[in-house]
Amino acid sequence: MHSVETFRSLQNDATEWRRYLHQNPELDYRLHKTAGFVAEKLASFGINRIEPGIAETGIVALIEGAGGKGPTIGLRADMDALPILEASNKPWSSKTPGNMHGCGHDGHTAMLLGAAKYLADTRNFKGCVALIFQPAEEGALGGQRMLQEGIMDRFEISQVFGMHNMPGMELGKFGICDGPIMAALDEFDLVVKGRGGHAAKPHETVDPVVIAAQIIVGLQTLVSRNTNPLDALVISITKFNAAQGYHIIPDHVELAGTVRTFQPNLRDFAEQHILAAARGIARGFGADVEFKYRRHDPVTFNHTEGTNLAIKAASNLVGTASVDDKMRPRMGSEDFAYMLEARPGAFIFLGNGPTAGLHHPAYDFNDEALPYGIGYWVTLAETVLAN
Prior knowledge:
The protein is an alpha/beta fold. Helices cover 34% and strands 25% of the residues. The protein folds into two domains: 4-182 and 299-384, Aminopeptidase (3-Layer(aba) Sandwich), CATH 3.40.630; 184-295, Alpha-Beta Plaits (2-Layer Sandwich), CATH 3.30.70. It has helices spanning 11-23, 32-44, 105-122, 142-148, 151-154, 208-224, 264-284, 304-318, 336-342, 370-384, and strands at residues 49-54, 58-64, 72-78, 128-134, 157-166, 174-175, 179-182, 184-193, 197-198, 233-241, 248-249, 252-261, 288-295, 300-302, 323-324, 345-351. An eight-stranded mixed sheet has the order 1-2-4-3-5-16-6-15, with helices on both faces. The chain has a four-stranded antiparallel sheet with strand order 10-12-8-13, covered by helices on one side. Helix 3 (105-122) packs across helix 10.
């Protein structure tokens, strides 16, 4: 059984890798520099089977244990950055204005590289560890695409595990729960179609701005008055585009938003009732709507056996007092959910300390968390694939 101290010798290297990645962020599937860096490091660790070019820039690498035949488990890290102008003011800030690692995927990649180095040196397990370096987690469905390109069958992966840093969770702590741990993600676009004109003559128009405002307020009753308060449903309008001039009432207003829930029937409810409510309000004012609804990530669902293995590994590393095994689910989403639909496993959170929040311009991954993440991956692999 390892302690975190076992992995502190890897912290300097992992910090160097993490900060290089942070300075050189790339988006969605366009991770050519990132993927090249990862593949080069994996080869330097003596890993012989490295398969690049999966979902364009994804990588899967296999480490065979010294304990003989056994199953293969997948350990996944996401690699892509976000289109955000960084405001962390760190010496290793992004060199690409408008792009930054605002979600910690640089840290996730560095932790899995650190685990790869350790596991390739020790190989104290049977079977194989498949290291999954995924592109395009941030809304471009890179995890789903890797599945569509057959990674589970191609590499004979029987279980799969993921990890994400969590700002606000104490450094050195882990959080996990059985069952749903992150919500499903849907998105919608809504166009309110009225009749424009001069802002000084609103009576000659069908003002889509006022109607859109009514719709925004009205949609909140779908949560507060049309669903069980014990069920989790979020409907958030995040875009509102109208005329650009002070004196113009536009012909139309464009709204967009997101839906989060843990229940498939509430996804159906949201899709049907957002349209019905918006159309009813709009037509009551003499306008109409166009509506598009897209389903993205499903619920991230932890399987019981995988959850118990993750809890055991984290507890062996940091002690049971530092593992919250009944963490409340989060309304954020993860495309790792697709991998957990394809294979059993679990997703866990790692404390990032009192940093800025995820997707915030001032966010930065906490390098002090690196040995905890590396240690978790190593301990998990050796726990699941015990000799």
